[in-house]
Specification:
Number of domains: 1
Number of helices: 2
Largest sheet: 3 strands, antiparallel
CATH architecture: Beta Barrel
Helix content: 10-25%
Distance between the termini: 52 Å
Radius of gyration: 17 Å
Amino acid sequence: MKFGRFGLYILTLFLLPMGLSANEQIPKSQIRSLQVYNDFAVVRLMDPGQNVDGCTRSNAAEFVAVLFDSSAGREMYSAVLAAYMSGRELGFGASGCHAWGGSTVPRIYRVDFGDIP
């Protein structure tokens, strides 16, 4: 089967969105628990998000993963830890899923403190 440039272009436009993640705004919540591993942490929320990426853990909306693979990730973990220790609420921006215990949970890219407009 020969597509040519135009056919390849159309096929690319059709397939490209399949690999993209949705962005989710997880509302402010207190942290129920925190599990820390070598290269990531898993936060369990009191008020779950929506799991718009369809992560595979049955109760995935109750969790978010914070990755330590960058300085931004480590700084977000510091903010999460400070909120956990003080009992403050945080909101999150999540996109994509992270493997945890044979399933996946939402992965964060942003931490929100205070009132966000």
